[in-house]
Amino acid sequence: MGRNSSAFNNQRSEFISESDQDHDSKSGGCFVSTKKAVVLAVLAILCLGAVGATIYFYGHKIDKQSQNENNTNDLEALLNDTLNNQTFEDFRLPLDIFPLHYRLRIHPLLDESSSDNFTFTGEVTILMHCSESTKAIILHADQLNILQDQVEVSTTKDVSEEFFPEIVNLTRDEDDIVDSQSQSYSTDDPPSESLNKDSAFLIYHQPEVIYLDLEKIEEITNMSRYIIHLKDKLQAGENYTVNLQFSGTVSNNLLGLYRTKYLSPDGATRWILNTHFQPIFARMVFPCFDEPSFKASFEISVARKTNMSSLSNMPLKESEEMPNQSGWVWDHFDTSPPMSPHLVAFTIFDFGYVKVNASELGTVLKIWAPNHLLAEANYAADISPNILSYLQTYFGVKFPLPKLDMVAVPELYQTAMENWGLIRFRDDALLLHPSTISWDTKNHIFRTMINKFAKQWIGNLVTMNWWSEIWLSEGFSAYLEDVVQNAIDPTLKDLDIYSLKIAQTSLDSDKLKSVQSLQIPIKEPTQIEQLFDDVAYNKGSCLLRMLNWTITEEEFKKGIKNYLTKWKYKCSTIEDFWNSFTNVDKFLPNGVSLKEFMDSWITQDGYPVLTVRRDYEHGSASITQRGFINSHSADHYLWYIPLTYLKEAEHTPLKTTWMINQRLITISNFTNPGSKQWSIFNVEGTGLYRVNYDDTNWNLLKHQLMKDASKISSTDRGQLLNDAFELANFNLLNYSSAFEITKYMKHREHNYIPWNALFNSLKQLNYIIRTTQYRGIFENYIINLITPTYIRLGNVAKVNESLSDKLLRTFILSKLCTCNYEPCLEWSRMKYKEWMDSKNPDVNIPIAYDFRKIASCTAIKMGGRKEWFFLWRRTLYPSRSTANLKIFYSSLGCTREPWLINNYLENAINGTIPLQYSIDVWKSLTNNPVALNFGFAFLRSNWERINKNYQHIFINLNIIFEEFLSKLSTNIDLEDLTNFYKDNEKTLTSVSSLMLDIVEKIKSRVSWKNTNLDVVIKWIEENSDQNHKSSKDL
């Protein structure tokens, strides 16, 4: 102790000066031992560290929260930040190896008595060509169990013969007799430059197989890559074979190899196996080079039970009994021409078929469906040969395969899928139920078939090299829907409904800042599915229509034939497509190529708005162009615009001129000096742009419409209405001018096209006004405007009436009921009650198909649980048609009861409602403000479940965001959407671009309300007859 005390004292004296001692003695200071001092010092350091850490972490968090409060409350900024800061890996496969031929064997288990039910095993042997030395074979594989110890890579030596095998002999002899069991090809035209004689793979009389040593197997799950690393390099110019054995699970989400079912007339469940591989889902079923440019021939074998049938792309070659599995057979199919993996397809079912009478086409056509539904295939059987024949003539190239099967599938990812030689349709897109026969249902089948048939050539025979150019095949097939339908049914030529609809939809979509140009780089695989949208379908279709008008239909068709002839069985680029039009310079401005002309439309965002200002005194006209994106000017954009215009003078021919990437042009001698005749630009809506005029020309057009609307075509009348309201939205035209144009319609517009165009223009106004106190005023304006047309048409079809009248009657009645016109509400309740009181409501529906949706939706809107559950029970009836079922689902969303809305949405995500119809549930809520609000609340509360169900099914997510949430319109909606994103940012990243669309639309509507609502309501109040009379004819 003494020693320690001495030490303590010595240490203490060293740290205290005399002055300190004096001070302490005077002030009563305290002293601590060295141990305590050390402990205190350590504690002080720890406290300082804790304080520092607290300041760092919590201060950083506070700063971050403060920053979030300042910046991320603007959801648009947050989404843009997310999109701009995403990092991406290169997900494309290398080009050092490409496949030549697949030998694929798939054995799915569709046997409920087996513990392995809904699984599959398979084996694939891929013959490959090495173009550049490499030590790695990189394939796609997703959710597959590949037996690594069975992976083999081999080659052969001692070449004794070289020739083109049948699998790459692709040009069909003209004199061949088509046989469903076999198909021969000539060797005149190899399928691709990579498969020419110099690189043809070799066949040996007695080849020696050499197996290569593997170094390791690597799986990169997040990129769906399966990499085989080799000890020695593969040599450039040589062919190799890889053999893989694998297994997987049959999905229930409509992707890859999936299961679906139907109920037979006796109530038994019948299972079906089907495939959906486009765009990146072939890798879920077999290892492959799952990109469109990797075309190869396929030799496919599918295992099935003997009580089932199977189909694939090619005709069945033979069936072989399995030696060790009683009741099972292998179906071996003919070898296909080269095709991309996403076009591979097979189906297993117990269906029957109708053989279509089309022997003169040289192609075997069959329609497959459950046996009890085959009678409903008659309409499709009647029209399919005409469509195929027309397309063969149009393209100048015969249908490239020996057979074409059309299958009605109970559940399908899309309306129809155009796999080569095997097109699958949803029931209502192929079958016509007796209770749903109408022009509308026939038209749906007709146009869907045209679309999918057209892709057998552009999309399958010739495939775009990469998904960024998918707009060409999607847009071309949409464009041909009008071309083929009008050619086969000439009565439709005077009712060009769909071209105008498509143009208006395209312009509405393309104005958004978040909507990119047609041709964009793809940064990640999930972006590929998002390219299959309205921009690809509608804008692509409109641009091809504009090209056809510009270079004439004759030259357009020549170019298409050149394209298909040169690139058949190959992959191409958009430049290859433009280069196929070899004789079109005379239709273009001097020095401007077709590529330059079209690139201005496919590589730029937005679209041009032209302003035509005339000098009436001197007879000239000045035209300026400005780009517009989301109602904002984009003056840095210019387009090559083929202008068309008409003038009032009778028999004035259509005039054309060009804006050659210019801001302003002037047409001298546009009219005679002093002439005040109206003029119209963009005749028949053939150009993808809007047109504004000076006030004088707008007034001249308005007076012409009031005097004799028939002097202006129905399509041009529709275009004028649509342009006027959109220009008002841009603040380029006042709303009073736009509404003034509509005055002629009340008593003088008898055509469906302008009415449709008007209400398409009023959609955005309706989304805003329906949430305000002015909803009743707006509805009264609509009722007052359209009631005379309804009185003229009535609600019963007339003998020999025009198609326009038929469509307009249904259209007007729908608008009257939506606007709560009491006679319409009463009529709907009466028709619905008549249905409810019928003895067999599942079979006998007393409401005409054309009015079924109107009456059902209105009755449910005005009714309660009794009306709702009556219709719900109809959805459970096994033999109801798909067309009726879609009407039922669409109508159930019309209820105003929150608990029924929640119940309905719960059924949509818990599996009660089939997956393909869940999108109809969400769409049904969009025109119901009550359902929109409660549906959004349901979405926020159940997002985790919804995302789990739909995360791989982009089409469902797209409907929820693009169709449902995009109808929101208030600042409160925007706040809720912002909180929704903040709470679920990680899972919402993949739909950031869709949410950006929604934010733009909401902000635009909020701005519109602040700027234009009072103006619009004032005009309506001053010009509407608020005391409209009810029609007794309802």
From TrEMBL:
PANTHER family: PROTEASE M1 ZINC METALLOPROTEASE (PTHR11533), THYROTROPIN-RELEASING HORMONE-DEGRADING ECTOENZYME (PTHR11533:SF294)
Cofactor note text: Binds 1 zinc ion per subunit.
Membrane topology qualifier: Lipid-anchor; GPI-anchor
Species this chain originates from: Photinus pyralis
Main subcellular localisation: membrane
Pfam families on file: ERAP1_C (PF11838), Peptidase_M1 (PF01433), Peptidase_M1_N (PF17900)
Keyword Ligase attached: no
Aminopeptidase N-like N-terminal domain sequence ranges: 99-157, 206-341
Name by which UniProt lists this protein: Aminopeptidase
